[in-house]
Design goal:
This protein is of the alpha+beta class and about 210 residues long.
């Protein structure tokens, strides 16, 4: 595949105008602006984000999930406590998030500590999901060996019946988490490879930012 991979074009999106000298002091304001632009530009599922974690031995893993909230306290997502990411975060709370919006050639990277938000927030997140989403979470057993796809579909169908019969049912293992960043990077790609990179860092609660080499 080497030849094929090297022959494929890269950075084929349409990068918008971006003045790194005019960025706001608060990185969340810039994230909100970039996110809105990605959404309005038709970026598919702009709330999809890659979460990277590492276990107690430092072995990394990553997966794509859906961002559930963002605000001054950080970036929120949810998972099952039996999942690999929850197991990683239980022993090593350091986490990273990466958004890649190819049509506008933009990437946002977030690094910080992930914190479990507690039972009440977890229950609220679970109940805010669609019945299909709740049933999918209720019917699976993350990490366990699966005999067949039919077994999974049957379990989900049974779970959907439980959800429909008891709309207030909450999966005990459901967990809401939030990545509280101390570093955010905003990367604007360019076809001539003169990529623009602005990095925000937080020290004792205050944000500062700088233009860095790509």
């Amino acid at each position: 595949m080497r030849h094929e991979l090297r022959s494929l074009p890269a950075l084929t999106g349409h990068a918008p105008e971006f003045d790194p000298e005019a960025v706001p002091a608060d990185p969340y304001d810039l994230f909100a602006d970039w996110f809105a632009h990605a959404r309005d530009a038709g970026v598919p599922e702009p709330h999809a984000v890659t979460l990277a974690t590492a276990d107690a031995r430092g072995r990394p893993s990553s997966r794509v999930l859906v961002l559930k909230d963002v605000g001054p306290d950080g970036f929120a997502f949810a998972t099952d406590e039996r999942s690999g990411k929850a197991a990683d975060l239980a022993v090593n709370p350091q986490a990273a998030l990466t958004f890649w919006w190819q049509p506008v050639v933009r990437q946002v990277r977030v690094e910080g500590v992930a914190r479990y938000l507690g039972d009440e927030a977890s229950a609220a997140d679970y109940l805010a999901r669609s019945p299909a989403s709740r049933a999918a979470a209720l019917g699976v057993r993350p990490g366990e060996r699966l005999g067949s796809v039919r077994q999974m579909r049957d379990a989900m169908a049974a779970a959907r019946e439980r959800v429909d019969a008891d709309p207030g049912l909450v999966l005990r293992q459901w967990q809401a988490w939030r990545v509280e960043p101390d570093r955010l990077e905003f990367w604007q790609g360019s076809r001539d490879r003169a990529h623009v990179r602005v990095v925000y860092t937080r020290t004792q609660g205050d944000w500062s930012h700088t233009l860095t080499w790509p």
